[in-house]
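User: Iron-containing redox enzyme family protein, Geodermatophilus arenarius:
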Amino acid sequence: MLPLAVATSRRIVDHPGLHGVYPEFLVMWHGMIRASVPLMETALTAARALPDDPVAAPLADYLEHHIPEERGHDDWLLADLEAIGVPPDRVLARVPSPPVAALVGSQYYWVHHVHPVGLLGYIALLEGYPPARQDIDRMQAVSGYGPEAFRTLLLHAELDPHHGRELDDLLDALPLSGQQRTLIGLSGMASVQLLSLAQQELLDRF
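Assistant: Predicted structure for Iron-containing redox enzyme family protein:
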């Protein structure tokens, strides 16, 4: 399923009407990123409620470290959008699409009803494939927007490789059961599918 997400992302990067597509792309991502810290906080609370679980303790340690690193990224996106003429109140008034809601909402289900470690599949998608600097440069050139519209993408291009390595180290160290490995895999595959649907919805409007 990952090639599908890569293909839809590529179509956004290469879209000839990027001047109109890019603000919608940022709004779509804001719908997901605004939920990242609350979702991780929910998983942290659930992990702390499992004191005898050998996976929950290192997961909680990871989330306690990672949550402050992710806090405020939704505000970065709002600032980028405001720089290209889209005010924050207009972004916040938008109802995120069903694929975005399902992408985030499925994680709450797995956290509450299976195990909070499932969230790592979702995090792996969001942080395991950082934007390439050459793609960001191309988007800026094609869209006509200034560098102030790409600050969040540039920061993630810098930060996400490190975050991805931290996540890989955690996954290697966790004493995962077969069920937990399956859960992380399903979380990651569902996240890819739903992100692809969200991106395709955006492309269909253009």
